[in-house]
């Protein structure tokens, strides 16, 4: 996609020039695995790294976006995102330079992608802030202190000593115990906490900081902190909020600066197509069956098995809707054949089995002869498998592609049912999938009302796989659905894990 070699072209800003004006700053060191990303990257990376690092980070942000849309708590989001972070953007406590570099650069690359409109900037800040919050929660207390210390210019925080905490314990308890109790209950997912437990926690675990009270006017106004000699004493649970506000302020102002620098960068025709592609659709991350799927599970996929409940129970609503109507009518128009045919190819249906399947269905009741089928449809099926014409090995459509195509007309069944079905039909289909609880259905309808179709689909996946998800440890289960084949593979993997 990109030329790997750097080149110099008169009048064009190239990589070397960019490093001298767009990315002015000190040479980067990574003293902490958490970052405010306030120092731009300076080293050169290849275009391949540029692309893959951006996509890997985007996968994390998309998952966070999906969690927010489904009103997941920060703890639930953390559980869902954790396996993805380990896979795509790990940050181990023992210094691994390559990991920190990838984290740093991928953040800056996505700034270029998401600085372009107010809406994208807001989305980026929101999701990056949640990522920052999750990562801070994972730091050791020592690392948290070190992080604060290295940003003393922005964070004039002073940790109080244990002696000082005990000296003013009654005052600190009175002013902050309600906040601390609420946070502990959320963290431990418990309903109650005795006063003794709370006292013990504050005495032994809670780390207070003090800083000039004018830095936290809202906390002072809400009487959430202890004030003494012009200093506000702030418990750990509130410190993270202050950090996140600081993070958001820095990111917001730097995104605006990045936006102003874009015209110079856009003279580089190697980066522009990639940046445009990434920003076009926030959910446009390509599903890769090698990354998520399990090819060994394709062995039982054939022309007969794909109509059995054992296999169709793993279909997302779009595939089920297409196949059900195709079987009922012994026919499917072109757009539907493409969408379903490539989906079936993606789940492992071979070309021979695909020809059998389509021929059986089209000739079984409508009076179509096998000769007519072979004449009018065989070529197209072989074409999808790269065996005819330009011999392109076509990939199954992802949700973004499906949603970008024209909506189905009368007698057509392609598209995304969450977008294309009437409310009554959608509810009927949800019932068929086993989603019958009214509040669950309302949640899906709310997603659809906000045009968050993939979020609705992810919600339905979680509702219909509740039992399996509760019995398995996280292993990609929380992944946002952005591809019908991802839905299918995740569903089968969960079943397989439980059987193992
Ligand atoms: Fe299919 Fe994607 Fe729509 Fe789900 S969101 S029904 S996978 S197109």
Could you characterize what this model shows?
- The chain is mostly helical.
- It folds into 3 domains: 15-151 and 243-280, Transcription Elongation Factor S-II, Chain A (Up-down Bundle); 158-238, Up-down Bundle (Transcription Elongation Factor S-II, Chain A), CATH 1.20.930; 289-499.
- Helices cover 61% and strands 3% of the residues.
- It has helices spanning 15-21, 47-69, 74-88, 97-114, 118-138, 141-150, 162-167, 169-188, 195-204, 217-221, 236-265, 272-280, 289-292, 309-312, 317-329, 334-347, 351-363, 370-376, 378-384, 399-404, 417-420, 423-433, 438-449, 453-464, 466-471, 484-499, and strands spanning 158-159, 209-212, 226-228, 231-234.
- It has a 4-stranded antiparallel β-sheet.
- A hairpin with a 2-residue loop joins strand 3 (226-228) and strand 4 (231-234).
- Helix 2 runs antiparallel to helix 3 (74-88), helix 4 runs antiparallel to helix 5 (118-138) and helix 5 crosses helix 11.
- The longest helix is centred in the middle third of the chain and has 30 residues, at 236-265.
Descriptive key words:
61% helix; 500 residues; disordered N terminus; 4-stranded antiparallel sheet; binds iron/sulfur cluster; 4 strands; Transcription Elongation Factor S-II, Chain A; single chain; mainly alpha; 26 helices; 3% strand
